[in-house]
UniProtKB/TrEMBL annotation:
One of its GO terms (biological process) is methylation. One of its GO terms (cellular component) is cytoplasm. NCBIfam families: ogt (TIGR00589). It comes from Candidatus Desulfovibrio kirbyi. Keywords: Cytoplasm, DNA damage, DNA repair, Methyltransferase, Transferase. The gene is ogt. This is Methylated-DNA--protein-cysteine methyltransferase. Involved in the cellular defense against the biological effects of O6-methylguanine (O6-MeG) and O4-methylthymine (O4-MeT) in DNA. Repairs the methylated nucleobase in DNA by stoichiometrically transferring the methyl group to a cysteine residue in the enzyme. This is a suicide reaction: the enzyme is irreversibly inactivated. PROSITE patterns: MGMT. InterPro entries: MethylDNA_cys_MeTrfase_AS, MethylDNA_cys_MeTrfase_DNA-bd, MethylDNA_cys_MeTrfase_DNAb, MethylG_MeTrfase_N, MGMT, MGMT_N_sf, WH-like_DNA-bd_sf. Signal peptide: none annotated.
């Protein structure tokens, strides 16, 4: 059984999911792949992990690094798990490129070639947004691309973390990514 909790953030409603002990999902309502790992049978319930996650989000949305991580449970392919592990290592207020993650995966797992596009697919399917900071991944040359919650939300999250957005290329409406 999975459990859910709704969190009203300054950036919109967030749905949080748990297996009863660990966080299994966190999505902005309406985002791409919303509730992709959430079982159809779920129940709204107060759990300690939801309180811890709410505390984390309350601190985060003040523009501060919470300094702790609620217990996480993520399930995916070996490749996705490797990418998500790297996401968890990106410090608050820092960024990395899709290509940078591809290089780290290639160095660890020694494939002949690792594609930044494949990394982008894994990043996009991250089921625990914000806490597993997929918003901190950018394209080559500072391009802000590919955030399941939308580019506007990505810009707001990076701004909240104190990044100078003038150094990034933010796509405008009608601009091809």
């Amino acid at each position: 059984m999975q459990y859910i909790y709704k969190y009203d953030s300054p950036m919109g409603m967030i749905t949080i999911a748990s297996n009863g002990e660990s966080l299994t999902g966190l999505w902005f309502n309406g985002q791409k792949y919303f509730a992709g790992t959430l079982e159809k049978e779920n129940e709204a319930k107060q759990l300690p992990v939801f309180k811890e996650t709410r505390d984390w989000l309350d601190i985060y949305f003040t523009g501060k690094d919470p300094g702790f991580t609620p217990p996480l449970y993520m399930n995916g392919s070996k490749f996705r798990m490797a990418v998500w592990k790297i996401l968890c290592e990106i410090p608050f207020g820092k960024i990395i490129t899709y290509g940078g993650i591809a290089k780290q995966i290639a160095a660890k797992h020694r494939p002949d070639k690792m594609s930044a596009q494949a990394v982008g697919g894994a990043v996009g399917h991250n089921p625990i947004s914000i806490i597993v900071p997929c918003h901190r991944v950018i394209g080559a040359n500072g391009n802000l691309t590919g955030y399941a919650g939308g580019i506007g939300t990505k810009v707001k999250l990076l701004t909240l973390e104190g990044l100078d957005m003038t150094r990034f290329c933010v796509p405008t409406k009608g601009t091809a990514l």
